[in-house]
Amino acid sequence: MTIDDDVADALKERARLLEQPFKQVVNEILRKGLRPERATLSEPYRVQPLNCGLQPGVDPLRLNQLSDELEVEAFLQKEARVEGQRREAASDR
Questions:
Q1: What's the pTM?
Q2: What digits encode the pLDDT tens for the residues 11-54?
Q3: How far apart are CA 70 and CA 32, in angstroms?
Q4: How far is Cα 41 from Cα 29, in angstroms, rounded to an integer?
């Protein structure tokens, strides 16, 4: 088995700090890495719903459609104004 230089250096440093043989440190690290991870027991994440304040009959799933329709309407009104200004400018010539 070949160990990369940076890994070998880290293992040697750990063995020196722990004052343990290199072989022992390598085996302990490998054992820790091969152990199956234990699932942490924590409370499940729960979402708390909030009242969004929509009036009865308002479908929140169609709000994007309404936004799109309003955007198109505003665009068409702007285009109509620009076209009217173009006609005025052309008639002034």
A1: 0.40
A2: 999 999 999 999 999 999 999 888 877 766 778 888 888 877 77
A3: 60
A4: 25
Phi, psi of 46 (to 5 degrees): -125, 135
Tell me the percentage of the chain whose pLDDT exceeds 70.
96
Per-residue tokens: 33: 């890495």
pLDDT at 62: 86
Contacts of 89 (CB under 8 A, 6+ apart): none
Contact assessment for residue 25 and residue 15, using Cβ atoms and an 8 Å cutoff:
yes
* Positions of E strands within 16-57: none
CB atoms under 10 Å from CB of 25, counted, come to 19
